[in-house]
Design brief:
The chain contains 16 helices and 13 strands. By secondary structure, the chain is of the alpha/beta class. It has a single domain, classed as Type I PLP-dependent aspartate aminotransferase-like (Major domain) (Aspartate Aminotransferase, domain 2), CATH 3.40.640.10. It has a seven-stranded mixed β-sheet, sandwiched between helices. Helix 5 links the parallel strand 2 and strand 3. Helix 6 runs parallel beside helix 7 and helix 11 runs parallel beside helix 15. It starts with 9 loop residues before the first helix and ends in a 17-residue tail after the last helix. The protein binds pyridoxal-5'-phosphate (PLP). Pyridoxal-5'-phosphate (PLP) binds next to helix 4 and helix 5. Pfam families: DegT_DnrJ_EryC1. Its cofactor is pyridoxal 5'-phosphate. One of its GO terms (molecular function) is transaminase activity. InterPro entries: DegT/StrS_aminotransferase, PyrdxlP-dep_Trfase, PyrdxlP-dep_Trfase_major, PyrdxlP-dep_Trfase_small.
Length: 444
């Protein structure tokens, strides 16, 4: 259930107070005439530069994949320190294209976390492969070497694995691959949440064979829709580039360049999953704001961390391994000791004008994946225990400190104070909440 309560229109954000340096407005509490929450779960901010860049492309006479896409690809590759980047229509398409390019045997088993977005499992199935669900550690919402090993027993001989950096938290890619008995050449990363994530001191982008990013409206680099595959493998990049546009040997842009020819051929199946120059121009302009937006996300996450330490029964997720968190989502667990269940809490917060979301309904809770995916013997107890607790709180660069305070105050107000506080003293010894290396001084 990624039912976000989004701010519905760009104009609403425009009415908020702009900050210095073209950064997003800092007042996200502008009154909404539409009845939308006044603390929305997410706000899509397309910067004035990005809007101008889109207009320029629209006026240029070339709006589909072309020069802007090429520039976005090279700037993005440099940003994540990868050799190659291929711009596509979505992260879902990126995952499918990356898996197809691995040339795995038809029906081959691909390990995928049980707690992920349904698009990831669709990508596996559309690539002609079989998802094998991997249980998660409820403290991190991420698979562990032990849960991977159990999934391997279920399928025998996995052909590949998809590693998710859930919420932007670094996942231990190499350890999980080792537990699966797979080389990193057979790992595809789902980095939909992970632009800005590092594992150890290495940026997510070239840790495995192919890494797939999303530019969906709520993501850390919002375009509206769009995706990117990055890789250090030149041959894989050629395959994916061809397959993103019908498998054609030359796209329309190349054919119109000086010396280009009208002929092309098709040697294998392809998708229609190219990025347009309008999207690419927006992405390039947005990328220039990215570091500022990340600083803001880290500051707000730090504020949540501090405020929520005083709220019994609301527990932020632990981070699975060392590295830098991208702070895409701020996910908490609503524990049994809290005053209400997660579902009721979502409604109560909505009643107070606070938008939230749930990431994710586990795949095996949906009939289609129960029919099509393999599951470990003994089921997925970690995912089943975690799901009723999962709650994503508002986090985006337009959020104000006052809004975070309001969310935390609402959460604190619903807590049965004395009994729960006493339990909290006992159940929460002073331990580090995470093992992150923080890039910004204000990080938690
Ligand atoms: C974990 C995860 N993977 C994949 C996707 C798919 O991204 P897109 O919407 O760009 O296809 C999403 C989108 O929300 C996601 O959250």
């Amino acid at each position: 259930m990624t039912v976000h309560r989004l701010r519905p229109r760009q104009e609403s954000a425009d009415r908020a107070r702009p900050a210095l340096n073209g950064a997003p407005p800092t007042d996200a509490r502008t009154a909404e005439p539409t009845g939308a929450p006044d603390v929305p779960f997410a706000v899509t901010w397309i910067s004035p530069e990005a809007r101008r860049a889109a207009q320029d492309v629209l006026a240029s006479g070339w709006v589909t994949t072309g020069h802007q896409t090429e520039l976005f690809e090279s700037e993005f590759a440099a940003h994540v320190e990868a050799e190659h980047a291929i711009a596509v229509s979505s992260c879902t398409a990126a995952l499918e294209l990356a898996l197809r390019a691995l040339r795995l045997p038809a029906g081959g088993a691909v390990l995928v976390p049980a707690v992920t977005f349904c698009g990831a499992a669709h990508a596996i199935l559309h690539a002609g492969l079989r998802p094998v669900l991997v249980d998660v550690d409820p403290r991190t919402a991420t698979p562990t070497p032990a849960t991977v090993a159990r999934a391997v027993v279920a399928c025998g001989d996995p052909q590949a694995m998809m590693v998710l950096h859930y919420a932007g938290a670094p996942a231990p890619v190499a350890e999980l691959a080792e537990a699966a008995g797979l080389p990193l050449t057979h790992v595809v990363e789902d980095a939909a949440h992970a632009l800005g994530t590092s594992v150890g001191d290495r940026s997510v982008g070239s840790l495995s064979r192919a890494t797939c990013f999303s530019f969906y409206a709520t993501k850390n680099l919002p375009i509206g829709e769009g995706g990117m595959v990055t890789t250090d493998d030149a041959e894989l990049a050629v395959r994916i580039r061809r397959a993103r546009l019908h498998g054609m040997s030359a796209d329309a842009w190349r054919r119109t360049l000086p010396g280009g020819r009208w002929q092309y051929t098709v040697e294998e199946a392809g998708l229609k999953a190219n990025m347009t120059d309008v999207q690419a121009a927006i992405g390039r302009a947005q990328l220039r704001h990215f570091d500022d937006w990340q600083r803001r996300r880290h500051a707000l996450a730090a504020q949540y961390e501090t405020r929520l330490a005083a709220v019994p029964g609301i527990e932020p997720l632990d981070v699975p391994t060392l590295g830098r968190h991208a702070r895409h989502l701020y996910v908490v667990r609503v524990l049994e000791e809290y005053a209400t269940g997660r579902g009721e809490l979502v409604d109560r917060l909505a009643g107070h004008g606070i938008g939230t979301s749930v990431h994710f309904i586990p795949l095996h809770h949906m009939p289609y994946f129960r029919r099509t995916a393999l599951m470990p013997l003994g089921g997925l107890p970690g995912a089943d225990a975690l799901f009723p607790q999962l709650l994503s709180l508002p986090l985006h660069p337009l959020l104000t400190e006052q809004a975070v305070d309001r969310v935390c105050a609402e959460l604190a107000r619903l807590t049965p104070r004395r009994a729960a506080a006493a339990r909290k003293q006992v159940s929460r010894p002073a331990r580090p909440r995470s093992v992150m290396v923080h890039p910004y001084s204000e990080g938690p």
